[in-house]
Amino acid sequence: MRAFCFALTILCAVQSILAYPRPDFAINGVVSGSATVKTAAVGLSQDIADAGKGTVNLTSGYTVLSNLSTSLQFIGDEIVRVAAPLASQLTNLSTDNSNQIETTYAAINTSISQFDVLLSSGLNTTITDINNTAGTDYIVKQFADAFKNTKAALTALNSTIYQLKSDVDKARKAAGTTNPIPSAIIRANIPAKTVNNVITAIRNLRARVPLITYVIDSSLDNLHLVDLFIIALQKEVVDGAARYPLSYQAFQSNLGVESASVNTQFITGYGSNVSAIISSINTDLQNNTAYTSGLQTNINSLATAYGSIDTEAGKIATAFNNYSTNVPNLIGNLSNELATSLCNPLKMVSKVQIANAGYSDFCFSKYSPRVFSQVQLTIDAFDVCFEKELARLMNLSPVVQRIATQISYNTADLLSNLNVCLAIVDPTAEGACFTTIAPYYAVLATKVTAHTATAINLVNAETTASYNRLGACLYSSLSVTTASATDISNEAASCLDVGPQ
Ligand SMILES: *[C@@H]1O[C@H](CO)[C@@H](O)[C@H](O)[C@H]1NC(C)=O
Ligand SMILES: *[C@@H]1O[C@H](CO)[C@@H](O)[C@H](O)[C@H]1NC(C)=O
Ligand SMILES: *[C@@H]1O[C@H](CO)[C@@H](O)[C@H](O)[C@H]1NC(C)=O
Ligand SMILES: *[C@@H]1O[C@H](CO)[C@@H](O)[C@H](O)[C@H]1NC(C)=O
Ligand SMILES: *[C@@H]1O[C@H](CO)[C@@H](O)[C@H](O)[C@H]1NC(C)=O
Ligand SMILES: *[C@@H]1O[C@H](CO)[C@@H](O)[C@H](O)[C@H]1NC(C)=O
Ligand SMILES: *[C@@H]1O[C@H](CO)[C@@H](O)[C@H](O)[C@H]1NC(C)=O
Ligand SMILES: *[C@@H]1O[C@H](CO)[C@@H](O)[C@H](O)[C@H]1NC(C)=O
Ligand SMILES: *[C@@H]1O[C@H](CO)[C@@H](O)[C@H](O)[C@H]1NC(C)=O
Ligand SMILES: *[C@@H]1O[C@H](CO)[C@@H](O)[C@H](O)[C@H]1NC(C)=O
Ligand SMILES: *[C@@H]1O[C@H](CO)[C@@H](O)[C@H](O)[C@H]1NC(C)=O
Predict the structure, then answer these.
(1) Whose CB among 167, 236, 424, 451 lies 3.0–4.6 Å from 190's, allowing a Cys bridge?
(2) What are phi and psi of 431, to 5 degrees?
(3) 467 lines ligand 11 (CB under 6 A)
(4) Confidence class for position 27, pLDDT limits 50, 70, 90
(5) pLDDT above 70 for 21
């Protein structure tokens, strides 16, 4: 992938094969075309050096990337280590007048052999590592193709060098002890075609090396792209996890409001205290022994029941506070939850790009943003859970208010009932009146307590229910994320095979 700039200058650097004759090719004699051999060999040197220049800065910490980077750069470095001496030898050969024919050509033969061995099997372990680590064989197929072509060009070069050596040998022998070798002998024994074939072979070899460089560099580029994506996704997960507390803190603050509202509805809804109701007639009541020895006990129980309501109402805040305190624990570490959900699709879209296949760019561009968007989608889904629970909790205070109203009915007629008795002039009849209503108020006292308990139990049950509904909602949202993530993984994997749908 990425623009592949390959030095077209190689095709333009055409020089006449007859230019600048000099002592060359390991004999002290001027051979036409040697300067062009030099030009071609210098170009080969440059292209071989390029194979080792690829590098990438990886900071995401994803070991697949660093592993591949090491392997890819190792291949580039090996190409340079083994092939650079050959290019240097060919360059030196073009101006070599040492007369050390055997030594010089043997060294070149050795270099060609070593390069050949490198391409045939020297990198097999590294290639296998790349195949296993990338999890696809697109890169290794590209290397196989590039190596096969380079190897063929190398074999062709080998033959032309062998022919050149053979011709140089003949010229050397024909010249006997004459040094330098006369140009007539050279022309007779080293045909221009031999030199031209060497030039062609060097140029052809040179034209094969950039493909190796391309496979290395484009693969490294992909690693870099994936590295940047992982870093961006990591940041998005951390940012998303940091936004989550804002969501639940807003919810907690609303819980506080609801708690206060339920409490207010309850303590303002149950009506006046018994002592307040009867304070205006208490003296009259105390003058009747039937009252003080009978009904008063039950009225006191009723007063106690009412007096406890405010204390019991304190449990509303306790329940809401407990709810509120536990909300942050529902999802203990959202970063970890998101990371777990997004790990597989992250690996898959990375694999798709790392593959360096025909559809890699397309499929990565198609699916990596979808992985990225899962973070915000999840946080948004969480907000929906919070909103929904809040709306439901807002139904609680009207219910509690109605229970309070029902409680208030238990003292609604107390004053008028007592006044009816007090209106009876005869103390005995008046006392009988008190005695008659006494059992009812005994029961009412227990029912005030029961209603109060009902209200508090309702608040406890509802806050616990709400907490659990919230937990179910948050985790089902995370499950949606995980399910989407799995879909993204599967689709990205098939995209690599089949491309656009
Ligand atoms: C890698 O990072 C170093 C130091 O930050 C920098 O000098 C170098 O250019 C970077 N290399 C690449 C390929 O980005
Ligand atoms: C080619 O010649 C240069 C300069 O003389 C020398 O530094 C280099 O080692 C030679 N290369 C080989 C492979 O002998
Ligand atoms: C070239 O090198 C190969 C491998 O080292 C060796 O088998 C072969 O005999 C050599 N050929 C010549 C002509 O030196
Ligand atoms: C190069 O040619 C020589 C001579 O024919 C041969 O010994 C050697 O094996 C060849 N090397 C390669 C790599 O083809
Ligand atoms: C190296 O790999 C090539 C291509 O897969 C294979 O032909 C060759 O036999 C392998 N060589 C070794 C030594 O495993
Ligand atoms: C790469 O791995 C695949 C299996 O994943 C295997 O079929 C293939 O032969 C391997 N290729 C190389 C060159 O190791
Ligand atoms: C890369 O991973 C392979 C296994 O797939 C392992 O054998 C190799 O040692 C690793 N290389 C590095 C440099 O970590
Ligand atoms: C208290 O009751 C007695 C009769 O039992 C009555 O004579 C008296 O007037 C009453 N006192 C008051 C203040 O109502
Ligand atoms: C009822 O009595 C309690 C104390 O027993 C008091 O705190 C509360 O304010 C009273 N309520 C009303 C409505 O008078
Ligand atoms: C979540 O877990 C990660 C890794 O385990 C840790 O770095 C991070 O600080 C944790 N976050 C919270 C809010 O605990
Ligand atoms: C607090 O809330 C949690 C979760 O709803 C519940 O399990 C626990 O029993 C509650 N504790 C109290 C004291 O209400």
Answers:
(1) 167
(2) -60, -40
(3) yes
(4) confident
(5) no
Helix or strand run (H / E) with residue 173: helix 138-175
**Residue 467 identity (one-letter amino acid):** Y
Nearest CA to ligand 5 atom 6: 121
Q: Ligand 6 center to residue 131 CA distance, Å? A: 6
Residue 1: what pLDDT? 27
Q: Exposed, middle or buried by CB within 10 Å (0-12, 13-18, 19+), for 253?
A: exposed
Beta carbons of 195 and 165 less than 8 angstroms apart:
no
- Strand blocks (E) in 374-444: none
Q: Among 107, 51, 93, 103, which residue's Cα sits nearest to residue 199?
A: 93
Instruction: Name the burial class of residue 74, with classes exposed (0-12), middle (13-18) and buried (19+) by CB atoms within 10 angstroms of its CB.
Output: middle
Residue 260 CB neighbours (<10 A): 14
- Give per-residue burial for 122-145: e unless 16+ CB within 10 Å, then b: bbeebbebbbebbebbbbbebbee
What would the pLDDT profile of 124-145 be if each residue is shown by its tens digit? 999 999 999 999 999 999 999 9
Contact 24, 34 (CB under 8 A): yes
What residues have CB less than 8 Å from 282, skipping those under 6 apart? Answer: none
Burial (Cβ within 10 Å: 0-12, 13-18, ≥19) of residue 101? middle
How many residues does this entry show for the chain? 501
**What is the distance between the alpha carbons of residues 230 and 368, in angstroms, rounded to a whole number?**
10
- Is 72 in contact with 54 (CB distance < 8 Å)? yes
Supply 307's token pair: 């007096």
3-class state of residue 23 by DSSP: strand
Residue nearest to atom 7 of ligand 1 (CA): 57
Whole-structure pTM value: 0.83
Mean of the pLDDT values across residues 182-204? 93
DSSP 313-329: HHHHHHHHHHHHHHHHH
3-state helix, strand and coil shares in percent for the chain, rounded to the nearest 5: 85, 0, 15
Nearest CA to ligand 8 atom 4: 427
Closest CA to 186 of 39, 27, 38: 27
124 Cα nearest atom in ligand 5: 1
- The per-residue pLDDT for range 78-105, each reduced to its tens digit, is 999 999 999 999 999 998 888 899 999 9
Three-class secondary structure of residue 30 per DSSP:
strand
The answer to whether 424 and 433 have CB atoms below 8 angstroms apart is yes
C-alpha 154/C-alpha 407 separation (Å) is 101
| pLDDT at res. 22 | 52
CA distances from 322 to 256, 391, 461 (A): 11, 19, 12
How close is the Cα of 272 to the center of ligand 8, in Å? Answer: 28
DSSP 209-264: HHHHHHHHHHHHHHHHHHHHHHHHHHHHHHHHHHHHHHHHHHHHHHHHHHHHHHHH
